[in-house]
Every structure is written in structure tokens, then in C-alpha cells.
Specification:
Strand order of the largest sheet: 1-2-4-3-5-6-7-8
Order of helices and strands: EEEHEHEHEHHHHHEHEHH
Radius of gyration: 17 Å
Keywords: Hydrolase
Oligomer: single chain
Strand content: 15-25%
Protein name: Alpha/beta fold hydrolase
Number of helices: 11
Distance between the termini: 33 Å
GO molecular function, one term: hydrolase activity
Number of strands: 8
Number of domains: 1
Mean pLDDT: 94
Shape: globular
Organism: Bacillus daqingensis
Helix content: 40-55%
CATH topology: Rossmann fold
CATH class: Alpha Beta
InterPro entries: AB_hydrolase_1, AB_hydrolase_fold, Epox_hydrolase-like
């Protein structure tokens, strides 16, 4: 059986969620960002499952989960994560969040008071200002983007996601990343989630970072052009006693650029004593 397999479905209050569970040990939850899916964790799941019971899922509106026509924003994703944790009956999991997944993990912890054993943030969207000019343009013209010819949309999405990596994106990675965003349903979903990206969802939690006590590791691609590494260092200053490490030769999509290095940092921090890193 392939370690990466979304075999299960959970019907959340906001749409159905496809998820998988792999391995044995303490619970560890992987939360992806945008415009990614749990597909982009596939290099890490086998290694992490040697030490942990790994839970991975596609956010509502992403991947193989329901591409709901309503709210798929950061305003609901933390509620979905909370419902999943209750469905899985796990308390104080280790949570690893990338990009919007990091935002979702932070919002779940800070707004819903969900306790974590440890938290790992990988190039998270956490500090204002954020949101590219492309995001702003889609926000103003979402309907027009939903109506462009499919081949133009595919070319745009391909160019967009490849820009997140420092190394050239392999063809199989590109295919697996963009496939959920193709055809009519996927195309509409792609522009929907961008149009709903709103900085107020991080403005709401930024003042709360100083109150965090959960052991936190921040990992950042040294060559991230989407969210420069300086934001990571600033976030480390905002979260008391957080650890910070940069990952060389990696852009925003660290788990595709340098999966072995990322896995090494994760296992060292999560398996060994938290002060060893």
C-alpha cells in the first residue's frame, strides 16, 4: 500500500474532507497550505510514520476534499482542523503546518485553545503584510479568472506553483500539484481560495503570539521568494522561546525542494529532546 493514500472521508461542518492515517506512535498532524495539498507531504510521510501515527488531509476546497462553493478561507479551516482532531480522538498532537497550514495551526491553537505537544511551522503565513499582487487581482476579478480557457488556466497555475521552488520542479511533482486545480470544478476552486485570502485572519492572531507557551520550531527555506526569510526571523522573535532554522537551497515549497533535510530537522526535533536542535 502506498503510504500516501487518502482512504478516508470525514464530513465536517464545512464540507467533506479526505484524509489518511499512517504509522504507529504519538499523533502527528500534517497541515498543508495554498495552493498545495497533502500530496506535497508524500516525501515525508513514510519517514515520519516510523516514529509517529501520521494524520494528513486535504483542506476543504483543496486537493481531493470537497471543493465547496462557499467559504473555504482561513476563517473556517481552523474549525475543520478542530473537528478532525475530535473525530480522530487525539489530544495534544504534534502539529506541522506549512504556509496557510501554519496559519491554520496557529489559529486552532490560539483561537480555539487546542493544546499541542509541539508545533512546527514551515514558511507559514503569519505576519502582515502578505498577499501578492496576483492575489489582489484575483480578488477583484475572480469571476473573469474562472471563465478563462482551461489551457490558459493550466499554464498560469503551472507557472505559479513552479515559482515556489528553488530547484526545478520535476514533472511528476508539477502534475500532482496542479491536477486538483484543473477542469471546471478545480479551476473555480483555485480562484475561489485565492479570492478569499484575507490578511485579517493573521491580524486577528498576531497580538497573541507573545502568549504562546507550546514548544515551537520555525523552519524556513533560505531562498523563499514568496515569504522572505526575514519574516521567519521576526516570527521567531514574536513567539517566546521558539527555535529557528533556515534550510539551504530551498524556496517556499521546502518539502519538495529539500525533503531529506526537512525530514532530518523534524525527526531530530520531534524524536529527540526538544533542546537538542
Amino acid at each position: 500500500m502506498n503510504s500516501y493514500w487518502l482512504a478516508k472521508t470525514f464530513h465536517s461542518s464545512y464540507g467533506y474532507v479526505r484524509y489518511g492515517i499512517c504509522g504507529e506512535g504519538p499523533p502527528l498532524v500534517l497541515v498543508h497550505g495554498t495552493p498545495w495539498s497533502s500530496f506535497n507531504w508524500r516525501h515525508l510521510i513514510p519517514g515520519l510514520s516510523e516514529w509517529f501515527t501520521v494524520y494528513y488531509y486535504d483542506l476543504v476546497g483543496y486537493g481531493k476534499s470537497e471543493k465547496a462553493t462557499g467559504d473555504v478561507s482561513l476563517g473556517i479551516q481552523h474549525h475543520v482542523l478542530d473537528e478532525l482532531l475530535q473525530e480522530w480522538r487525539i489530544n495534544e498532537p504534534i502539529v506541522v503546518g506549512h504556509d496557510f497550514g501554519g496559519t491554520t495551526a496557529l489559529r486552532t491553537h490560539l483561537l480555539l485553545n487546542v493544546s499541542y505537544k509541539k508545533l512546527v511551522l514551515i514558511d507559514p503565513v503569519a505576519l502582515a503584510p502578505w498577499g501578492s499582487s496576483f492575489f489582489s487581482h484575483v480578488f477583484k476579478h475572480e469571476e473573469a479568472f474562472r471563465g478563462i480557457p482551461g489551457y490558459i488556466h493550466e499554464a498560469m497555475v503551472a507557472a505559479y506553483v513552479q515559482d515556489a521552488m528553488y530547484t526545478p520542479m520535476p514533472s511528476d511533482t508539477l502534475k500532482g500539484t496542479i491536477t486538483p486545480w484543473l477542469k471546471d470544478i478545480g479551476q473555480a476552486a483555485f480562484y475561489r481560495q485565492i479570492a478569499q485570502a484575507d490578511q485579517r485572519y493573521t491580524d486577528e492572531i498576531e497580538p497573541l503570539y507573545a502568549s504562546m507557551t507550546v514548544p515551537t520550531l520555525i523552519l524556513w527555506g533560505a531562498e523563499d521568494e514568496w515569504i522572505p526569510i526575514g519574516r521567519g526571523r521576526e516570527l521567531r522573535r514574536r513567539i517566546p522561546n521558539a527555535s529557528f532554522r533556515s534550510i539551504p537551497n530551498a524556496g517556499h515549497l521546502v518539502q519538495e525542494d529539500q525533503p531529506a533535510t526537512l525530514l532530518g530537522y523534524l525527526t531530530r526535533y520531534l524524536v529527540d529532546d526538544e533542546n537538542a536542535i
